[in-house]
Specification:
By secondary structure, the chain is an alpha+beta fold. Helices cover 38% and strands 26% of the residues. It is built from 12 helices and 22 strands. The strands form 4 sheets. It has an 8-stranded antiparallel barrel. It is elongated, with a radius of gyration of 35 Å. It starts with 7 loop residues before the first strand and ends in a 5-residue tail after the last strand.
């Protein structure tokens, strides 16, 4: 089979990019997995929006095939509660669960899209168009590839000049940096480069002519430099005697001007360039100033900014290509640069490290374009973190879930689940108890909240002194005053709660609960651990 982690086995994976007919979404990748825990086949799809309007939901129709390409399943799947702005990505963490475990291939099409303004679109064209990204290095030789970068923008980072600019299906275009843009965009959303300029420059005849011109200019500059050097040598020899006299006269005034006034002006100019984020220009001046004020420190700071920018660029490329582990490594190396806090938070969220994700979303500044998104993502982290603790069902996890769900601010069904959690904590049923007749036997009551129905049930774990599981019972009926348990020995047990004590009675099949005489010898008590310290 395919790649495996602790829970999922990868059956197939495809990272080809496709235009999805006339739907305003692009498919960035797909996978088919086997969930070993749930014993189910799941599909995953990764989409990018190219819509100018916010998408809040969309539906897809899915057909599953077996290994012989025979159709064995057809269903509809919905992506809900989205906030997809143009170029946002979704779906990679959303499982499409197939009911038939023999599915080994699936196809899909987008049947309906719901926008933030309330409008609905039902795409009629479902033709898939492959977006085939080509590397510049596969099309141009090294000299022409370097000339293309010079002609386009000599200051562009290497990672932003790797792919051949191309338009696909009159729907999207691929930028030099590898990003996919909607056809309505003239500039890349990621690097800001214009598609018209990229395509104009990406011409072999034009680049060959530019390369020849570049070589000639370089040669002329070298010749000119040599002429100037020879002239300076002659001038230096001729003017040595005169210079001695002139220097003696001007030394005092000129020294003050060069040592104080000029450096001061240059330093101020460098500061202005820094404010304008022209780091290259500022660095040249600081380097010329040498040890003046903190120029050396400023050069070091600029070098660090360049390193951060390069690392951030690399991280964004990995992130866009769904290589989140590589992206995280680079984002952490340029932490605080650009929107790194937001993207680290997103990756941590995908890794289900919700506490860390929240800490990074908290660092996103208000001026960031992702500030409002970070608030929503943080609320979702609190919700998922809280639901994980609800699923554990234990007393300590319910206490944590209460705090987390309160911070989810009512998203999804968090208010309903929070109400259940508070009620269960107030009932004080869940926890560890000791058998009053056999102190070596302990039991733990765990609360199960079912996700879709939000029904409540209990699981009771009996353990021996070595913490080995002896028996597991499930409640068949839950009331405010008591719970009913079916045992494998044919007994029906009734547990009544009073403070931290459970009083147990049981009946055999056919016996009535109204017959209190049967309670003789059948009453048993368990006391909560907090009272046995």
């Amino acid at each position: 089979m395919g790649e495996t982690n602790q829970r999922y086995t990868q059956l197939s994976k495809n990272t080809d990019i496709y235009i999805l007919g006339d739907a305003p979404l692009v498919l960035l990748g797909r996978a088919l997995l086997y969930d070993t825990k749930e014993d189910k086949i799941i599909g995953q799809l990764k989409f990018q929006s190219i819509s100018e309007k916010k998408i809040i939901a969309f539906k897809i129709s899915v057909i599953g095939f077996d290994v012989s390409n025979v159709q064995i399943e057809q269903s509809e799947f919905q992506y809900l509660d989205l906030k997809m702005k143009e170029n946002d990505v979704t779906g990679s963490q959303t499982p499409i669960v197939f009911s038939n475990k023999n599915v080994r291939k699936f196809v899909f099409w987008i049947s309906e899209i719901v926008y933030g303004d309330g409008s609905i679109e039902n795409p009629s064209n479902h033709e898939l168009i492959l977006v085939e990204k080509k590397l510049i290095s596969d099309v141009l030789d090294k000299e022409l590839a370097e000339q293309y970068k010079r002609s386009l923008n000599p200051n562009i980072p290497v990672n932003f000049c790797q792919y051949v600019p191309a338009v696909f299906g009159n729907r999207v275009w691929c930028c030099n940096c590898g990003s996919i843009n909607g056809i309505h965009r003239t500039k890349c959303y990621r690097c800001g480069s214009e598609i018209d300029n990229q395509q104009r420059v990406f011409n072999k005849e034009y680049l060959n002519a530019q390369l020849e011109e570049y070589k000639k200019e370089k040669e002329l500059k070298n010749i000119e430099k040599e002429k100037i050097r020879q002239k300076q040598i002659k001038q230096l020899q001729f003017g040595t005697k005169i210079a001695v006299v002139v220097v003696a006269v001007l030394l005092v005034g000129n020294l003050g001007y060069k040592k104080i006034i000029v450096p001061h002006k240059q330093y101020n100019e460098a500061e202005k360039l820094m404010e304008q984020e022209d780091y290259s220009g500022a660095k040249k001046i600081y380097e010329q100033l040498g040890a003046y004020k903190d120029s050396d420190e400023q050069v070091e700071k600029i070098d660090n900014k360049f390193k951060q920018k390069a690392m951030y660029t690399s991280a964004m490329m990995f992130y866009q290509n769904n290589s989140e582990s590589m992206a995280l490594s680079d984002f952490l190396k340029c932490e605080g640069y650009g929107d790194s806090y937001y993207y680290i938070g997103m990756i941590k969220k995908h890794q289900r490290a919700y506490k860390e994700a929240i800490s990074y979303f908290d660092k996103v500044i208000k001026d960031s374009e992702h500030y409002s998104d970070s608030i929503s993502e943080k609320e979702e982290c609190y919700y998922k973190w809280g639901m994980e603790n609800v699923d554990k069902g234990r007393l300590d996890s319910f206490v944590k879930a209460k705090d987390e769900l309160e911070k989810a601010n009512g998203i999804y069904d968090s208010e309903k689940v929070l109400k259940i959690v508070k009620e269960e904590l107030n009932k004080k049923r869940i926890g560890v108890y000791h058998d009053t007749d056999d102190l070596n036997l302990t039991l733990e009551i765990i609360c199960a909240v079912y996700p879709k129905t939000l029904n409540v049930n209990y699981k009771i774990l009996f353990r021996d002194p070595e913490n080995r599981m002896v028996k597991i019972l499930y409640s068949s009926e839950v009331e405010n005053e008591y719970i009913m348990l079916n045992d494998s020995d044919g007994k029906v047990r009734k547990w009544s709660f009073s403070g931290d004590t459970i009083t147990e009675t049981y009946r055999l099949e056919g016996e009535s609960w109204d017959d209190t005489e049967l309670d003789n010898g059948r009453i048993h008590t368990y006391v909560k651990e907090s009272d046995n310290s």
